[in-house]
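tmp note - PIG-L family deacetylase
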Amino acid sequence: MTATLVLTAHPGDFVWRAGGAIALATSRGRRVVIGCMSFGERGESASLWRKGYTLDEVKAHRRGEAEQAAKVLGAEIRFFDADDYPLVETPELLRGLIDLYREVQPAVVLTHAAADPYNFDHPFAHAIALKSRILAQAPGVEGPGEVIGAPPVFCFEPHQPEQCGFIPNVLLDITEVWERKTEAMRILAAQKHLHRYYTELGSRRGLQAARNSGPNLGLPNETYAEAYMRLYPQVTRELS
Ligand SMILES: [Zn+2]
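out:
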């Protein structure tokens, strides 16, 4: 089965930035596996800390939200519990990601963009996602499973793309799964303030998708979309 691997620093990231792509893939019978490197317990759970939760309670709460959101999107989810703020490379995290690549054998990889001056966990997650992808390709790197090929990597949209050098050169029409994305967003009560922002962003990227869709697709203005930045060249036999 064609699989998609989504590698994120924190639980909210896969919902806000790639929930539509995940729901779209699973609605078409594709397997989607999310590798969540931390629970976002320190950096992306401010409302829970203000309520007086302990560290373990924050982690458990975020884990629960992430599992529920993944279920709504039809995806599997694996947690690495590698600590956030700062998220740093450990031998266990690197090993775990290599093993996950080889187990899933992804045809598509989604992860963070290379830069984010507001959140250093995100560029770290980008770097280790690419590093483990390359190591998983090398027969000389030990571990279970077969080596992988060279799946294309799509970076999902950072929260403030203009500050991150993010060029939205891929616009994905997610209109048919928009309701599922909003359902997954509603689960993230710890980050409620982002709901309106990502609803408006979906609509704005949708308008841009319509504007850029050309004569073949001809998308209407009511489209919802997610933006991605493709990292490696697109390989094709025909320009379209
Ligand atoms: Zn994050």
